Amino acid sequence: MKLEKPRGRRGFTIVEALVSVAIIGLLVGLILPAVQIARESARKTECRAHLRELCSAVANFESQHGVLPPERAKGGFRSPLIEILPMVDQAAYYHQVLREGVPTSYLPEDPVSRRRPVLAILRCPSDQQALGTNFRFNHGCDVLGSDEEGKGRGPLSTPATPSSQVTDGLSNTVIMSEAVMSPNGPHSFHRGDAWYSGLGSQRVPRPSNDDVVSLCQEAAASPAPFYPYVGHDWAISGLGHAGYNHVLPPNGTVLNCRLDGPQLNGAMDHYWPVGILKASSYHHGGVNVVMLDGSARFISNSIDLSVWQAISTRADGEPTAEF
Q1: pTM surpassing 0.85?
Q2: Other beta carbons less than 10 A from residue 154's beta carbon
Q3: Most CB atoms closer than 10 Å: which of 128, 168, 180, 247?
Q4: pLDDT tens readout for residues 270-294
Q5: What one-character-per-residue DSSP string does 106-153 give?
């Protein structure tokens, strides 16, 4: 009987190895986007949860004081975010701000500004900047806060008023949304920044929304100087710090743009910046908002502008379509 020699184990051929590598690469290519989508979905959900918590703080503020937080604290420039700090377990920092005061503008070298704490509740994890706030209060849909008849005004006001004056309905009125912050440190123009329109250096009549949109487009094309600290000092009230508006849809193509109030022939009675500061985010397709009744939702970038503006106002009486 003839015995056969056992055959040696045959290794992979080069072709088989290459096929295996290609299959593994294909699987990784399929899995990674799904993992990234899942992570971003979790970040978007966390942002929405922060907005709900901040809206709950606004409701607690009204329960204690009988009014919503003021758009600008009487006798100073404190933002509504400062006013609700005691309702989010930050009473110590609230009292520190009362002692030290709030600067009228943000400069990174300012000692008070530098001591702003980084609060997780004010941050959306989709934005990787190291300081500031992503969550801003709604300032309505007029570049100057409201038109000459008072229309276009957001839910907050100075002096403060109760939510009963939001006659468009709490479930129909946005109180807060999110916006991309300026990067830290020196940088070229970023989508979180805001161009200076040039209007602030002129003595002009009250500009319309369309006027400012045109000026913003001109500023971006120039290019003009820009404000590189948007969202960094959330203790200061107004657009560019703790506020945004609904002049344009979320994540729109027209870039942020601001102008200063005192030069507008009495159109403004205070010194905060006004202009276009859009809701914006790093989420795919839109932004989170929270309504005054505490309900939070995701708003598409493609929302009709008339609907987006209707849900920004407190008492304009316009019917609100589904959104």
Answers
A1: no
A2: 25
A3: 247
A4: 334 578 899 999 999 999 999 999 9
A5: --TT-HHHHT----GGG--TTS--SSS-SEEEE--SSTTSS-TTSTT-
